[in-house]
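Reminder: ligand-aware prediction takes two inputs, not one.
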Amino acid sequence: MSGPGDDRADERHDHDDLQDLARRHLWMHFTRMARAPELDWPVIASGDGCHVTDTAGRRYLDGLSGLFTSQLGYGRRELAEVAAEQAGRMHYFPLWSHAHPPAIELAARLAGLAPGDLNRVFLTVSGSESVESALKLARQFHRANGEPGRYKVISRVGSYHGTTMGALAITGLAQFREPFEPLPSGFLKVPNCNAFRPAFPGLSGEDLTDALIASVEQQILAEGAHTVAAVFVEPLQNAGGCLPPPTDTYYAKLRAVCDRHGVLLVSDEVICAYGRLGTMFGCERYGYQPDMITTAKGLTSGYSPLGAVLVSDRLMEPFLADPRASFTHGITFGGHPVSCAVALANLDIFEREGVVDHVDRHRHTFRALLEDLRDIPIVGDVRGEGYFWALELVKDQDTRARFDRDEVEPLLRGLVGPRLLELGLIARADDRGDPVLQFAPPLVAGPAELEELAGITRKVLEEASATLR
Ligand SMILES: Cc1ncc(COP(=O)(O)O)c(C=O)c1O
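Here is what comes back for the chain with pyridoxal-5'-phosphate:
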C-alpha cells in the first residue's frame, strides 16, 4: 500500500540515502550490525496482496507474513480507514479503571470466538507482553486462590516465548537467554516434540508422546506440584522448525497431567492464533482446552500493534470474590482504541472472506507442494500444519546427519538466505537450532502464491545442494 507519506519519503530519500541512514542510525532487532555497512538491506516500502516492494523497486513474495503477522496481506485500505476514523474520534484512552467501546466490543468478540470458557480478555500491545501478562496472572491467580507457593513455570526446550524478562525466562533457547543471565529462577524446561530428532532416541508415535508427557509429570513431581504454576506451550512450536505434537493424543494427555496436579495450561498462540493452522485458534487444530491463550500478531494482521490474553472464567473467580482484589498489572497502550478498532475490522474481514476456511481448504495443497521438495538431497524433513511449515536441511537424507556447525552459517546466511531474496521470496532461514527454512505466508495466499513459493524454494535448494556436492 503506498500513500502520501511514502511518496514524501521517496522524494526525501532515494534508496541509497535510506540505506546510508539505516546503516548509521537504525538498530535492527536480532540483527548482526557489524556487517551492516557492506550490506544492501531490503527496505520494504509498500505492498499489495501477498507481495511487498522495496525502495530499489524489487518485488518479493512475503513467505513469512512480515513476522507471522500479516494474515490478510498488504494494501487493505479498509483497515487503514478504520484506524484513521477511530484516531479521529477518540485516539487514546487507557483501560486502567476506564474502558472504551472498541476494547469492550473486541473483548466480547474474542470471548465469543474462543473455545470453551475463555470468556475474559486482557489486552496488551505485543506477544511478549501477552506472555508476560499470562505468567503474572498465573502466579497471582494461585496466590489469590490460596496457593501462594505455586510460582514455577514449565516450558519446552528450544521454544521462543518473547523477549521481556519473564517471557525470556520461559523461552527455551539458551543463546537468547545467556546474555541476560541471571534470569529469575523457577523456569524449568522439558523436552520438545521434535519427532525427527526425538529427545528419546528410537521412540516415535504414541511411545514418544508418552515419554514426553511422562517427562512433564516427572518434572512437576520432582519440583513438588504445590510449587508449579503453569505449563506454557505453543500448539505447533515455532523455534526448532514447526514441531507438531507427535500424535493426536499428546495434548489430551498433557491436559490430564496439568489437571492432575492443579497446574494451569497456557497455549502460547502468538503465531498459531487467528487462522494460521486453519482453525481460528491453534488449540482447536489439536483439540485441547487451555486455561489461557496468549495472542498478538495476526489479531490485527499487523495494521496496528495489539495483543490479547484470553482467560478462563475460573481464573477470574478469586478476583470477583474479593472486593479488594485486582490483577496488579497494566500497560499504558494495552488495548489501544485504534488497534482494537482495527482488530474488529480484521475479524470482520476474516468472517466475510472465510479466511480460516480458506487456509483449512488449501493447507493440503501447501503440504503437498512442500512434501514434493523431498527429492532435493539437502531436504531432510518437511513438517508443519496449516500455513506454517519448515524444511529441515541435512547433510545426508538417509542418516539424517547434521551439517557441522561451521557449515550451517555459510549455507543459510551465505547461500540460501541471499539467493531466496534475489529470486524474490522472503522466508526464514533459521539457524537457532538445526537449520530450517520456514514459511508462513499470508492467509489469503492461494495456489498461485503457494506454487510461486515452492518453485523459488526448489530452485534455491537445488542450487545449494549442487554447490555442496
Ligand atoms: C510463540 C511466541 N510467543 C511470544 C512472542 C513474542 O511476541 P512479540 O515479538 O510480539 O513480543 C513470539 C514472537 O514471535 C512468539 O512466536
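The mean pLDDT is 95. Residues 264 and 433 are 28 Å apart (CA to CA). We will return to this case in the review session.
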